Amino acid sequence: MVVRDAELARRLWSRLEPIHVVTYFSPEVRAALSGAGYKGFWMGYFAGRAAPMGPVGPEVVFATFCNFSIAHVSRAIPDAWTFAPPSAALEARERGSAAALRRAFAGRDLAGPVETAAVLARAAAESAPMEGRALFAANRALPWPTEPIAGLWQACTLLREHRGDGHVAALAAAGIGGREANVLQTAAGIVPRGVFEAARYYDDAEWDRVSARLIDRELVGPDGKLTARGKDVRNDIEDRTDRAALTAYDRLDDEQLQQLLDALALLARAVIATGDIPEVTPIGQRFEL
User: Is the pLDDT of residue 287 over 70?
Assistant: First the structure.
């Protein structure tokens, strides 16, 4: 029997995340977004991920993505839509992501795992609750790709954004803003400060301001590490995130869930082997395959 607990939620996330994040790190997607007209990495990133919601403004992107600054988002959105419409971003990210996965799977006997994972992940994604999950729902409304590898990517993207929306809700319930969440990750020893400084655009002044708020709330100590209270708050957020994420898999029985885990492990290993994905990302993912 598959135990449906926090460990399972983390294993599922760890195995589907590499398949989704080729969207941000693979050369195929970067080239496709650039070819569509978007200028630079960040415009392509924000346009590609936000495109399912339509030509939204920076406030919507800031709210749904959560851990970027509004100034950072505003450098790319809404200007991105003057270079190319959301439909162009959607086509580019799907085409580029499928091409990146085909490269990762080439020369390996993975047709069976691709089919298994695509079917089961889609079943989970299409039955997952949408309430309160704006980014997941926007992706859920898109037409389903007909090509199997593109369908696999779409299903993993849905499940990833479903978990992400739940995580944002858990943070909000705990009174933790996106910028504070980044500093907490560093205080917990999960993500080095330098990663956030580069990928989430912090200067020393903002980092110090956010840290001071967390120190005042006794979540972080003067040494920059989590306090006992901080650990409790963070653990509660992660537990709520995991429990909310597992609701996406209620439709799958234990045998199907194990089949999905096994298939995703093989596929994720192939993606990781390309070297496209950084060892440490801003979400602090350590792949447990």
Answer: no
